[in-house]
Request: fold
Amino acid sequence: MPHRASDAEESLLSNYSPYMPNAYINTRRLHNNRRRILPVCLSLTALALTTLLVLSWSQQRPDQSIVASEPIETEDASKPPSVFIEPPKFDPLDPRVSLKGPPTPKFRDNLRPELQYITSWISAGWTNDVMTYANLIYLGLITDRIPVIPIFMPTHMDGALPTIPFSEVFDLPRLRQLLGKPVLEWREVKDRESNIVEDLGCWNIWEAVHMHEKHPRISVVAEHHLKLDLSYTKAPDYVKLIPGFEHDLHATFWSLATLAFPESRKANLVPPLESSVHHVSLPPDEQMLCYDYLYYVCAHKPHEWETDYSPAWRYVGQHMHWTKRLEDIAELAVRETLGVSDGAPTPPWITIHARHTDFQDLCYGVPIHECYASISTIARRVSEVKAELHRKGIAVEHVIMTSDEKDPAWWQEVAEQGWYRVNHQKITEAHGQWYTLFVDVVIQSSGKGFVGTDGSTMSLLAQRRVETWHNGVTAQFKWGTPAADDH
Reply:
């Protein structure tokens, strides 16, 4: 608040006597005037500073629309007006940023020298290969390396089928965005038509975890499709989850991750095996880190994908969504299977996956009809899933059976339950045999409910997807004896 003179002061200043010095009177008046002027000066100063800041900022970062429509005055009128051009956006997830350019005949020619990469190979059925690639990507996350994903092989299908790229099944751009990290395919790195055989040193995990094997896990992907001549170095024994236990083959993520760093790599180098083509012996590559097989890898316990804390699922697997094209093909197959008319919405459904065929090897002498879960056993599980969905306020009447069973009598029992079966023949004719598998797994993962076969990794992943993507209800039926699923 401004200072106000007392009545005595006002009187003294207005009726000063000749004995009062003029300096005192002038000082008092000046003091009061300064009190009044100070707020005005401060306001004007703030306004001036604000104006200067705005002008300075607009000179450094002019608004594109204003600058483009109003020419800037310059001393030289012959010069064209300057226009602000937005710089191109830098996307670290763009594969072109992770490589020197398009695929090259030699993969090394396309690697950026300042970046590090990681890769591995597949050697199992398709679902296990999916899990292997998820493990690879997760290992890339914790080692700060860029995963390079190979192709899918028709391991449990007709061997004459062509290979399938990862990105034909999974939405790779979406995966990159959800991970916030780059992920590459080998076909983006090396030209698929190249016949140049390149040398590469890799870690041999298989021999370190499998007590009765004296060689790495062999995969035709690297040698025949990527034209790589591999020289393997046995990984240290400490990578094995349970040392000395012959009945488990798991390594751990972080024990393998240590080999991605210079000190542990150097400390664990032993004489490498000779490669099969060029007969060279190379230590594990430092820029393109590679392992022979990453299916049997966990953080805490064997078969960790069965747990809700599985890091490979939580940080990678759940983000591996289907491509839009694959979803559209599966959606059409569902509508045709359920007989949905044009324009009508697709109703919710429950999918069953009954895995048979190769599981007969696990029956251990029990007759097949007693070993596999009966249709009535599966029907009880379906009823339980329906009831749980009903408690959530979701009514589901349609049930789709997916199975590798060939017995017509078994399928007749399925039909008698009122359950539906996808026309695989039509899918094969339209899209090829690979897509009978792909359509099944998309349908399994897209229902409101799912009932699967205990011990099947295909059922396991379908269960995880339904629960995570759709907040659905799932169950698995046990098998092996007639009473295995009693509960």
User: Anything to note?
Assistant: Residues 375 and 410 are 8 Å apart (CA to CA).
